[in-house]
């Protein structure tokens, strides 16, 4: 069965991971986020207790 022979598939897997790690990943990581996190302090919402009609 040729599917069980790891000889050609290991090289394909190694070459694809090498391509991803050395070429594609640095290009993806160089993008700047369009919405950087703000430095404002988060507001806590004011919550009121719910009044149940049957109590």
UniProtKB/TrEMBL annotation:
The keyword Transcription does not apply. GO terms for molecular function: proton transmembrane transporter activity. Keywords: ATP synthesis, CF(0), Hydrogen ion transport, Ion transport, Membrane, Mitochondrion, Transmembrane, Transmembrane helix, Transport. It is found in: Mitochondrion membrane. The chain crosses the membrane at residues 6-24. It comes from the Eukaryota. InterPro entries: ATP8_metazoa, ATPase_protein_8. It is a single-pass membrane protein. GO terms for cellular component: mitochondrial membrane; proton-transporting ATP synthase complex. One of its GO terms (biological process) is proton motive force-driven ATP synthesis. It holds the Pfam family ATP-synt_8. Residues 36-55 are annotated as: Disordered. Belongs to the ATPase protein 8 family. This is ATP synthase complex subunit 8. It comes from Pomatostomus ruficeps.
